[in-house]
Write a structure and sequence with these properties.
- The chain has 511 residues and is mostly helical.
- It contains 19 helices and ten strands.
- The strands form five sheets. A two-stranded antiparallel sheet has the order 1-2.
- Helix 5 runs antiparallel to helix 6 (135-160) and helix 10 (233-244) runs antiparallel to helix 15.
- The longest helix has 26 residues, at 135-160.
- The chain is globular, with a radius of gyration of 22 Å.
- It starts with a helix and ends in a 36-residue tail after the last helix.
């Protein structure tokens, strides 16, 4: 797609809804498949289909076999891109060594994913009010759309800082006149969307039929993260407390959230929408996705790219599906987590399996031998149809309870709340540790940092955590990270030409 057409196409989607119920179509649209707005948004069924189209962008993966989690993992200090060579999935390589530019890197995927979702949400919100349907259902739909729009903007403002702020469908003739907003204005809209959405969301949904849809607790967790990112620590703690419940370590009496007793159970395919899950990206092994459009598959692409190359199991070996050896853990991280009870569920030590004659594999690029156990595809989970590699069904966590426990503890510490033995912050931090049999520790930022590193490894949090804590420059220097530059991504060159958008000054621009 030509560079100046990407954002334009997203706008055109806002003017003509594209295959709303057919997931993963992306932006290359056959005009004959389009359903014009004049003929749409007439029935409750069409409203639901349009809402699903917004969710589609939330879980959208790149045709280059990566997603937001993979990008964040490659950018972290604990993992390296790996793969088959120094240019294999080059978008991950240039993030890994921080050589990305306005024309090279995954930022086009991140930008288009976010704005396509925003445009769909904006059109939905402008049209759904005119549909005759159950009032409670309509209120739920509106709240879900606002929450999703807030999620898209939260990612975009963190990744790019200076971005357009659009709250309504844009006339395609005006697309090249759009300008960027101050980040504070973007955050203001995010907060407004979430605070307006929360009252209209359900406390729970039926996992069998509606698993993956936004709930009240999910929106509150996102709002808590939004506040924490801005340094609004007391407000963050207040929102996160609603998610975490009155008694850390016990089930939330309103939403039912609780820490699973077995850490490893979090990453079993059969445990989708478990009690610790607050918001998941839904994947399926029944979409029949194929290589003609890998990003259109509903399968989890992390499951194939993180598997070991040329894997050949012997008797009693794990049933890993041979993959592409991406997102390896570093030796330093392995040494950090080696004696932690979460090690086995986090790291697949292929060198150990090979040394002991249990299995063999082929060493890939920058091989360390330490693979991401949490997401390696399993033979037992092979898809019944379609291309096996592209159709693994493991869901991905956007937010889970251990994450929000540690975020609230951090917010309480930063807002000078009590953190001594027996305090709420102490209970939150140490409930996460107690779940895996570790003794209590004091509530300090260093201890929270260590706990998040071990608990959430490989789940796409580490890079943004380091940026938030101001530690990215020191811990990522070995990868080529430059302070005052690599905290954000360059705005894609495709969005700058013939428009009024300006490149961030960190990448040679004026914004």
């Amino acid at each position: 797609m030509k560079m100046k057409n990407k954002l334009t196409y997203a706008i055109i989607i806002a003017a003509g809804l594209a295959t709303v119920a057919g997931c993963k179509k992306y932006l290359e649209i056959n005009p004959q498949e389009r359903i014009l707005l004049d003929n749409y948004y007439k029935t409750p069924q069409e409203a639901k289909a349009a809402l699903i189209a917004i969710y589609d962008r939330f879980g959208f993966q790149a045709g280059g076999l990566y997603d937001k989690i993979a990008i964040m993992d490659a950018a972290s200090d604990d993992q390296i891109a790996g793969g088959g060579g120094p240019s294999d999935i080059n978008d991950l390589q240039v993030v890994n060594n921080f050589t990305l530019s306005a024309t090279v890197g995954p930022q086009g995927y991140l930008w288009n994913k976010g704005y396509a979702g925003i445009f769909r949400a904006n059109v939905f919100l402008s049209k759904v009010g005119d549909i005759s349907m159950d009032a409670t259902t309509k209120a739920n739909y509106i709240s879900e759309a606002k929450t999703l729009r807030a999620i898209f903007y939260f990612d975009l403002v963190r990744f790019f800082k200076n971005i357009p702020l659009l709250t309504a469908a844009v006339d395609p003739k005006e697309i090249y006149n759009i300008t960027q907003a101050a980040p504070a204005d973007v955050y203001a809209l995010i907060e407004k969307d979430l605070t307006e959405a929360i009252p209209g969301l359900p406390n729970t949904v039926v996992a069998r039929t509606d698993g993956g849809r936004i709930t009240k607790g999910a929106a509150q967790a996102i709002l808590g993260k939004v506040y924490l990112w801005q340094g609004k620590n007391a407000e963050a703690a207040e929102q996160l407390a609603l998610v975490n419940g009155t008694s850390p370590g016990q089930a939330n009496s309103v939403y039912g959230y609780r820490l699973l007793s077995n850490y490893g159970d979090l990453f079993k395919v059969a445990n989708k929408f478990n009690a610790e899950s607050i918001l998941e990206i839904v994947h399926s092994n029944s979409s029949n996705g194929g290589w003609n459009d890998a990003g259109a598959s509903e399968g989890n692409l992390l499951n194939i790219i993180t598997g070991p190359r040329g894997y050949k199991p012997g008797p009693g070996a794990p049933d890993y599906y041979s993959g592409y050896s991406f997102l390896l853990f570093t030796k330093e991280f392995f040494d950090f987590i080696h004696f932690d009870p979460r090690n086995k569920a986090t790291v697949a030590n292929l060198d150990s399996l090979q040394r002991n004659g249990i299995a063999t594999y082929e060493a890939g690029y920058q091989n360390t031998g330490y693979f991401l156990e949490k997401t390696i595809g399993r033979v037992a989970d092979k898809a019944p149809t379609g291309q096996t590699e592209l159709n693994f069904p493991q869901n991905a966590y956007e937010i889970r309870l251990a994450d929000t426990y540690l975020l609230e503890a951090e917010a309480l510490l930063a807002s000078n709340a009590a953190v001594g033995t027996g305090s709420r912050a102490y209970q939150l931090l140490n409930a996460v540790r107690a779940r895996v049999g570790l003794n209590p520790v004091a509530v300090t930022l260093d201890n929270i940092i260590r706990e998040r590193r071990a608990e959430l490894a490989g789940e796409g949090h580490r890079f943004l955590d380091l940026v938030r804590w101001g530690k990215a420059a020191s811990l990522l220097a070995y990868k080529g990270f430059k302070s005052g530059r690599n905290e954000i991504f360059p705005i894609p060159q495709a969005e700058l030409a013939n428009t009024k958008l300006e490149q961030n000054k960190e990448y040679g621009g004026t914004k």
